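For consistency, the fold was encoded as tokens, as this record shows:
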Amino acid sequence: MREAFYLPSISDIKLYTSKVWQRIRPDLNKDAIKEKFQLIDYPILIITLLLILIGLFSVFSATMYIPDPETGISDPFGSFMTQYLSVIIGFVGLGILLILPFQLFKEINLLLAVQLILVIVLILTLIVGVIMGGAKSWIEIGGFSFQPSELAKITNILLVSYIVSHFKSLRIFSSEIFNNKHSLMAMVLLFATIVLVGLQPDFGMLIIMLVTLAFIYFPNHYSFKTNVVFLSLSIILYGLIILLANRYSDQLVNSGHYMLERIGSFVDPFAFEQTAGYQLINGYLAFSRGGFFGVGLGLGITKRGSLPAGHTDFILAVIGEETGLVGVALVLMLIFGLVFYLYRRAAMCRQAYNRNVISGIASLFLIQTLVNVGGISGLIPLTGVTLPFISSGGTSMIVSLIAIGIAEIFIIDDKRVVASYQTLSVIKGEGGS
């Protein structure tokens, strides 16, 4: 039977808040918080910290010759200090998440409220936001810029994981969605989020969101054979894009739309070496100069002006020039190692919700890395997507650390569940003897 919608009154909100507080209160005492920090999965934090250290040095090296926009003088520590501050804020956020009771992440009404706030902020971004990189996806507050869609990547994962885990027979446009107010509201908010990001238009972010959500939804609701069919269709679509980009490259590059220009130039950037292909060609040059072992830390040349976005999208090219194939391989091994470890932890989870959230965060890092590396290598069009934990970008760094914190929270909860099962088994064993 379809559930009726109504606006909650103040008394309803107070009653709901009181009930939530009663459920989370036991997790806020000193012993519970101490137990959480004892159950932290430290390999995840170690790999993350190594990536951040590499990223900080890479940002410092990539920006040491970039002039200050106000003075025109190079400030070697400007971008580095901004990134360092973002790391501090990110770790503070991670720590706060570890203290918060896990029950909060199970409150569907709270998840929906957070998503609704983000949708409102995304609407405001379209109205008063700042255009950067061809997309109106930033809001400036007091001299600081923030990209709300970055945070939406995480809330999307939480919301879809909850819905997928609690509605086993859920299908898009099925009666089950429309008959349940929570699933219906979740789908409406998710659809609104994706549409608003597309209107910015931030196609890189849009791709990451859609593919990440697909990685959560499809394995839960379709067979292996069906997923293989979807993957095959995606490969065919990719081939068609390459054929069309090659056939209509001139028209696409001269269209005046930044994304169409990138699609038209990625197949053969050398045909547009002074326009749409300029950035990609200089990325190739940086990699070729680096060879196997690089020209030396801080000694790269292309970052001095010929490589646009050398500290953001193309930071891996700067790493490749200065540390060579060895340095690039190390960075990618650490990222893929983190992704593999998160997938492994997800596979070990006893609860579907925990498993979907952790695997969703792993998929997010995987997809974002593949989109970044695919863009700078010319395998896919450039999208302006950053490399997780490495590229300069305050919002990206903070949100990535928040994602790690959420993964840790769900891993800790699963360890508690496993421990309770083991204790129960021991008690039953003793009772039987």
